[in-house]
Design brief:
Elements: H1 12-15, H2 17-27, H3 32-36, E1 42-45, E2 60-74, E3 81-88, E4 94-100, H4 104-109, E5 115-125, E6 128-132, E7 135-138, H5 150-154, E8 160-163, H6 172-185, H7 195-200, H8 206-214, H9 219-248, H10 263-270, H11 277-290, E9 297-302, H12 308-321, E10 325-329, H13 333-347, E11 364-368, H14 374-386, E12 389-394, E13 408-414, H15 421-428, E14 436-441, H16 447-453, E15 458-462, E16 472-478, H17 483-498, E17 502-506, H18 534-543, E18 551-554, H19 560-571, E19 577-580, E20 593-598, H20 606-613, E21 623-629, H21 636-646, H22 650-660, H23 669-672, H24 687-703, H25 711-720, H26 723-731
Parallel strand pairs: 4-6, 9-14, 9-15, 10-12, 10-13, 11-12, 13-14, 16-21, 17-19, 17-20, 18-19, 20-21
Antiparallel strand pairs: 1-8, 2-3, 2-5, 3-4, 5-6, 5-7
Helix pairs in contact: 8-9, 9-24, 9-25, 10-12, 11-12, 16-24
């Protein structure tokens, strides 16, 4: 075709209407640019074949394999024959291909020794993995039948065979053929990366990279192509973040400098313990941010129990000393109420302004939740609006119309990943000028994630645990293999209670009723029983292994006052065992609780399990976390649990969690609902590249903040990081 193709050329002009419709319908590919940026998911080689043993049932796969043997037998239930073809990958893995009907030509074509690519959905029959009626293309020789057309075979003549993300209706070799057609006439866009950056970072040109990633001449050329395209992705993200950080530095904010002899000094004087060195250092950073004339945007991360709340409270008191108000937004009413009680206890007379025993300079601490009665709500809102309440705690109810602040100076968001972008932004909009923002998380964030997702925030980390915190021992209880171990776990609960301690039992599901955010669906669809439920487990424990103990139930579907009453009873020691969902995952602080049993532990994520076990060992006595699972030894789920049990290092576990989840779209594709061209970047494997891209982005934005001298680069950033995602990054 003589006319050259650009990134905007519709595919129907290049590959025909029928194929273009299939690519659009099944893979959301509409233009030449869409297809060129639809990168292979892997490359097969004649000497390095797909490991068939690693295939999962239900997975849509393309495997490179060799025909081992064929067999034809009559079908029992209907007329005709069944052709069974056994293929292998050279590593001992075998896969059965089944074809129904009389297809003698297939038997002749699929003769032993032939190599081919076979695509279909993995099923299992009588313990053997198979593909029913797979699409295939044979390699190296011509053959009979539609699936072995010579021009398709030509795609796989090279040493490296690209395997694309495909669909049943559009197999990988069809995509490869379309890519070849497009590349034959494709004119790449102007290279957006400045020549000086390409030279200093040894990057190949964009056109070369786009051709070599689809049709690599060698492994070295493929590496260079992937490296260049990963750079584009990392560079676009980092430029977006650095630009937004640069703009935020120009926003006006009211400085909230520390005041000598005020609330903060009085609070420090009455603290019953000494701050850790980490708490002091982070406190100095935050105090300096609050005193600046532009808004603080800081992420405070720290292990469960590292003392983030005290750091946040000290920041809030500094703002109150400077005449402003501070709001803390918590993800659940249970946690908001717990923060309220905890801060009142820590502040004592300093938090009881207007009462007989209040201290000089005291303020008021108000709790605003959706379950407040009408009279209590009117009183609380009046305190907030007048400014008498210097510290305001609440859930998303703080965002409702009618909650007005007198002078909102600081927003503290606890466990930020539980809130939507719009909710966080709505709270910030309640201030006349942008308030200072402190985001807290107890989920350790790997360095590259912090750099890539939170790159417009300053990051502070609390790595020390306060004195008095006890170690937590964790063990996997294999309930299916060794039921006696589960019996021993329940006896251990009774022993802890007999010693005057308390226990948590955590289940993945609430029970009968509508679904809830607390209830993760089953991990797979392979017929496993439903996850264990709080409302079903609690009575079984009360009648069985924990008979005679005082058992309470806590989950998100309980009325707010009932939830609060249960938590108060547990905190006061009036309950021995709390059977709960993940509503106890964050913030719940009962130092007397020493043991946690997590049922169906394999249904939870790594970081979630690490958070949950942080609920025990919060006092002088050592903590114990038992992860109960029916997952088989050696299975991925069991290996994940073994990893959690083997270390208390949250950052190691966060990296494992990232790896297990295959990272996903770091820019929140599910939040924006848009397609993203970010395909290759790995937050785990590309840490050095991300760091280098950030350094180049900082230098470029300092010299040219709006990229006005680099229009192609600005357009590329917009294409890779669309406006929805840019806002997600800014607010997330």
């Amino acid at each position: 075709m003589s006319e050259s193709a650009t990134v905007d050329t519709p595919l129907k002009k290049l590959v025909g209407d029928k194929t273009a419709k299939a690519l659009a319908a099944h893979l959301d590919l509409h233009t030449a640019g869409d297809l060129v940026y639809h990168f292979p998911r892997r490359y097969d080689e004649r000497g390095e074949h797909t490991d068939i043993r690693s295939l999962d049932v239900g997975e849509q796969v393309t495997v490179l394999a060799q025909v081992q043997r064929t067999a034809v037998r009559p079908m029992r239930q209907r007329r005709g024959n069944l052709l069974e073809v056994t293929v292998g990958d050279g590593s001992g893995g075998l896969l059965t291909l089944t074809f129904f009907g009389n297809q003698a030509w297939r038997e002749r074509e699929l003769r032993p020794g032939r190599w081919g690519l076979f695509a279909g959905k993995v099923t299992e029959f009588r313990g053997k993995r198979q593909l029913n009626g797979p699409e295939y293309v044979l390699l190296g020789e011509g053959g009979e039948g539609e699936a072995a057309v010579s021009d398709e075979i030509e795609e796989f003549a090279g040493a490296l065979i690209p395997v694309y993300p495909a669909a049943a209706a559009v197999p990988t070799w069809v995509i490869a053929r379309c890519v070849r057609v497009v590349l034959d006439t494709f004119t790449p866009p102007e290279d957006p990366v400045p020549a000086t950056v390409r030279a200093s970072r040894n990057l190949v040109g964009l056109g070369t990279a786009l051709r070599e990633i689809h049709r690599p001449s060698s492994k070295e050329d493929l590496y260079r192509a992937r490296h260049r395209l990963k750079w584009d992705e990392a560079f676009a993200v980092q430029l977006t973040l650095v630009q937004r950080k640069h703009r935020a530095a120009d926003w006006p904010a009211r400085p909230r400098p520390a005041r000598s002899g005020g609330l903060l000094d009085a609070f420090d004087a009455r603290l019953p313990y000494e701050l850790t060195a980490g708490q002091r250092d982070v406190g100095v950073e935050i105090a300096a941010d609050l005193a600046a004339p532009h808004p603080m945007h800081r992420l405070l991360q720290g292990e469960v129990g590292s003392g983030k709340t005290v750091v946040a409270l000290r920041a809030m008191l500094q703002v109150v000393d400077a005449g402003g108000q501070a709001a803390l937004l918590a993800p659940t009413e249970v946690l908001a109420a717990q923060h309220h009680r905890g801060m009142l206890d820590l502040l004592g007379p300093l938090g009881r302004a207007g009462e007989l025993d209040s201290a000089e300079h005291a303020t008021r601490v108000e709790l605003v939740t959706g379950s407040l009665g009408a009279a209590a709500r009117r009183r609380a809102l009046a305190e907030v609006a007048s400014g008498a309440a210097g510290i305001v705690l609440g859930t998303h109810a703080l965002l409702y119309e009618g909650v007005d602040f007198n002078d909102l100076g600081l927003v503290v968001v606890d466990e930020q990943h539980r809130f939507g972008v719009e909710q966080r932004d709505a709270l910030r909009a309640k201030a006349e000028q942008p308030p200072h923002v402190l985001v807290m998380t107890a989920t350790p964030i790997p360095r590259t994630v912090a750099m890539t997702v939170y790159g417009d925030l300053e990051v502070s980390t609390l790595s020390q645990l306060p004195r008095g915190r006890s170690p937590i021992a964790s063990h996997v209880v294999p309930a299916a293999e060794k039921p006696a171990f589960l019996d021993r776990a329940w006896r251990r609960v009774r022993e802890e209670v007999a010693d005057g301690h308390q226990a948590y039992v955590v289940c993945p599901r609430i029970g009968e009723g509508p679904a809830s955010d607390e209830e993760p669906p089953p991990v797979d669809d392979n017929g496993r029983r439903p996850p264990l439920a709080v409302t079903e487990v609690a009575p079984l424990l009360a009648e069985g292994p924990l008979h005679g103990l005082r058992i309470g139930v806590l989950h998100g579907r309980l009325p707010a006052d009932e939830k609060d009453a249960v938590m108060r009873s547990f905190a006061a020691g009036d309950l021995d065992v709390l059977v709960a969902t993940t509503v106890v995952e964050v913030g719940v602080d009962v130092p007397n609780a020493t043991v946690m049993i997590v049922l169906d532990a394999d249904r939870f994520g790594v970081s979630q399990l690490h958070q949950l076990r942080g609920r025990v060992g919060r006092g002088a006595a050592a903590g114990l976390c038992l992860l109960v699972s029916e997952a088989a030894e050696g299975s991925p789920a069991r290996e994940r649990l073994d990893a959690v049990a083997s270390t208390g290092d949250g950052f190691k576990l966060a990296e494992l969690d990232l790896e297990q989840r295959r990272e996903g779209d770091v820019l929140g594709a599910t939040q924006s609902g848009r397609r993203s061209h970010l395909r290759l970047l790995s937050l785990l494997r590309d840490a050095d590249l991300i760091r280098d891209a950030r350094a180049e982005a900082i230098a470029l934005v300092e010299d040219d903040p709006e990229l006005t001298r680099h229009p192609a680069l600005a357009a590329s950033v917009t294409a890779l990081v669309d406006e929805d995602r840019a806002e997600y990054l800014e607010k997330g």
